[in-house]
Amino acid sequence: MSTTWSERLQAAIEARGRLCVGIDPHPSLIASWGFEPTVSGLENYVRHQIEVLGLTVAVFKPQSGLFEAYGAAGVAVLERAVADCKAAGALVILDAKRGDFQPTMQGYARGYLMEESPFQIDALTVSPYLGVGSLHPMFIAAAESGRGLYVLSRTSNPEGSALQLARTGEGATVAQQVVDDVEVRNEVLGPEFGLVIGATHEDLGVNLDEFTGSLLVPGIGAQGATVADVKRRFGDRASAVLPNVSRQVGRVGPDPHALKGAVEDLLDQVRELG
Ligand SMILES: O=c1ccn([C@@H]2O[C@H](COP(=O)(O)O)[C@@H](O)[C@H]2O)c(=O)[nH]1
């Protein structure tokens, strides 16, 4: 890509507002929109969501697992959904949380982060829990191709805390070590690498003061957090937040007027983040 992820993200936020809408085609949501929970229902649900919201939303975050559930046909729907979001002028963060040792990460880099990759995404979520260094091929491929990465640090789910708030030998929390290790890459390669920090924790458990990348923040809506919580919990760093809302939007149903209204309402709220 001829621009960097951080440049595209900034431009998209200025044009459309600071909001990432998750494309999370849970079978129950597909059914509630009046479609069969089959591959063709999946395709109809996703296509309708993008047709209605594609020109409004800055960033979409398809959840890979909910497409992979349908096998190769579901992955084909995902590939087309990415292309449809891009054709509508929106950016795409693929939420696939990839993480493995370096030789395997090279395969994921070829799949997601190169000019010739089948998935023409803008950014990818990755897991650092085989060591941030195991993500090295991803950092390099993303920097070379103008793509971004979002590295899991402090996830929104309650099960994450025991691991992520454990202390390293140096006394930092594991989540903080991830923040610091990713920031080292940002200093060398540019602020293209962000973090996933859940909105659901009253105490974030990490210090983000020195972090220069963007913060992908899930947990708003169905998981209980509000945009006001994000503003309070992220304080000075709220302007680096890219809030994600998935099921709360899907639960509105397929009516285009209602769907657009729900997103406009969220866009009004996120203006408060600065
Ligand atoms: O810490 C994390 C990391 C990723 N997610 C993903 O975000 C969405 C949230 O969906 P909602 O319906 O808005 O709750 C989903 O795709 C998760 O896999 C997360 O929730 N927390």
**What is the helical fraction, as a range of percent?**
40-55%
Number of domains: 1
Task: Profile the largest sheet.
Answer: 8 strands, parallel, barrel
Distinct ligands: the ligand O=c1ccn([C@@H]2O[C@H](COP(=O)(O)O)[C@@H](O)[C@H]2O)c(=O)[nH]1
In percent terms, what proportion of residues is strand?
5-15%
Number of helices: 12
What would CATH call the class? Alpha Beta
Indicate the structural class. alpha/beta
Give the CATH H-level superfamily: Aldolase class I
CATH architecture: Alpha-Beta Barrel
Provide the residue-averaged pLDDT. 97
3D shape: globular
CATH topology-level name: TIM Barrel
Main-sheet strand order equals 1-2-3-4-5-6-7-8
Order of helices and strands: HEHHEHHEHEHEHHEEHEHH
Domain Orotidine 5'-phosphate decarboxylase: 18-262
GO molecular function: orotidine-5'-phosphate decarboxylase activity
Family: Belongs to the OMP decarboxylase family. Type 2 subfamily.
Protein name: Orotidine-5'-phosphate decarboxylase
Description:
- The protein is α/β, with parallel strands linked by helices.
- It has one domain: Aldolase class I (TIM Barrel, Alpha-Beta Barrel).
- It contains 12 helices and 8 strands.
- The chain has helices at residues 5-16, 27-32, 39-53, 64-68, 71-87, 102-112, 136-145, 161-164, 174-189, 227-234, 247-250, 256-270, and strands spanning 20-23, 59-62, 91-98, 123-126, 148-154, 193-197, 215-217, 241-245.
- It has an 8-stranded parallel β-barrel, surrounded by 6 helices.
- It starts with a helix and ends with a helix.
- The structure holds the ligand O=c1ccn([C@@H]2O[C@H](COP(=O)(O)O)[C@@H](O)[C@H]2O)c(=O)[nH]1.
- Ligand LLZGTKA7 is lined by residues 22, 24, 63, 95, 155-157, 196, 198, 218-219, 221-223, 244-247.
- Belongs to the OMP decarboxylase family. Type 2 subfamily.
